[in-house]
Amino acid sequence: MVKEKKWTKEWFEGFIAGAVAIVVADLLIAQFILLSGHSIWLRLFLPALALGAAAVYAFKKQFGGIDGIEKLIPTVRSSPAASTAPEGPDSNKMQALALQGQGQLDQAFEKFRRIQPVDSRLLDLLYNLALEFERKREFKKAESVYLHITQTNKEYRDVQQKLSRAKRLAETEILGVGSMSATASPVAAKTAIGTEKPMLGRYQVEKELGKGAMGVVYLGRDPKIGRTVAIKTMALAQEFEAGELLEVKQRFFREAETAGRLSHPNIVQIFDAGEEHDLAYIAMEFVRGSDLTKHIKPSDLLSPSEVLRYVADAADALDYAHKNGVVHRDVKPANMMLLAETKVIKLMDFGIARLADSSKTKTGMVLGTPSYMSPEQLSGKKVDGRSDLFSLGVTLFQLLTGSLPFKADSMATLMFKIANEQHTNVCTVRSDLPPQIDAVINRALQKTAEARYSNGNEMARDLRAVLSTLS
Question: Which EC numbers does the record give (predicted)?
Fold first, then answer.
C-alpha cells in the first residue's frame, strides 16, 4: 500500500514536470527558429511563461501541491471506505423518502438516521415514518423511531405519548404480515393487562380461534355496536403471484359482497370484508359450536337420522344460495358448523374457493378440497349449483360411513376415479342404512351435472323422505 502511494505521487510529479518542460521547450524552439530565420520576436513568449508560472502557483495554492491532489484520488485500494464518497444529507433524505414510498420502511429509517444535523423538517419525516410503522402494526419499529426523535427533542409534538403507546403495543407480540406463512398468525396477540387490543379494520381482535388453509380465524368485536364476530383472515400476498394479486383481491371482494347478501337460517351471515396491508379479512357471524369434521371418524359418527336432517338443511341452504347467484365451491364437513345449543347446521365460507377458480396458488395449494370436488370442478370447467350438490353427496356418504366414496394414493388417481369410476354402494359399507339412501347418493354423485339433482330443494325433499322411514 505504501509503494502504491509513492508511485502515485511520483507519477503526478513527473507528469506535471514533463508537461511544463514540454511547453517551455516548444516555446523556446519556436522563438529560436522565428528569431534566427525571420527576425521575428514572439510577443506572447514572455506572457506565456508568466501564465505557466501562475498556473503552477495556483495549482500549489489550491491543492497544496502533489500531497494535496493525491488526497482526492482513492490510492489506498485495500480500504473500501476510502473508495466510497460520503453521502450528503440531501442524498440520504431523497433516498429515504423513495424507500418509504416503496414500502421499505426499515431501509428508509436507516437512511434517515444518517442525516445530520437533525432539524424540525427531519423530525416531521421521522414522525410520519413512525406512524406508518404503526399502521403496519410494527410497533417495536415505531418505538425505535419515536426513541430516535426523543434523542433530539423530547418535547416534539406528542412523541412521549406515542413512545409509551408503542412500547405497550409492542408487548402484545403482534407479528407482521410480511413475515408470516400461509398458516402463521398475522395478529397473534397475547394481551397483557392494561394494554390496547390489536385492531383489524374496525374490529378488536380478542383471541385466536383456529387456523385454516389460507390464514387464521379470530374472535373479534365491533366496538361501535358491541357485536361479537368471527374474523377469517387470508394472506393473499403470500398465496398468489404479484401479477395475479390485483385480480384475486377484486374477486375476493366481489364474492364477499355477493355472499354478504345471503340471509338464511342455515348460512353463516357475512357482515363485512376488508384489507389491511395485503391481509384480507371477512367479519362474519360468530356461532358457538363445532364443524362436522369430528363426526367423520368411524368411532364418532352421528346417527343416520341426524345426518339426514343436517344434510337436508344444508341442501335447503344451497338451494337458497344458488337461486341468489352464489355457488359455494367448497362444500365439505369442515364448512358445516353445528351449533352447540340449538343443533342447527350452518354453512360457511361461501365463495372462498372462487378466489382461484380451482387453480393453484403460488404455494401449490389447490383452493377447494379435491376429495369433495365434482368432475367438472376438478377439470377447471365452469361450475354451477349442481357441483355443490355433488360435494354435498360426498359429504353425506362420509358422514354416514366414516369414509370417502373416492380414495386414492395420488391426486392424479383421485381425479381419474372421481371423473370415471363408480363409487362404492353406501349400503355395502354400512348395511344398517335404509336402501333408499343409496338412490339419493347415486343421483348426487353422477359424473355429469345434467344427471344430478337440478337443485338443492329436490335433494332435500328426497332426504326428508328417507328420514321419515327411520322415525
Answer: 2.7.11.1
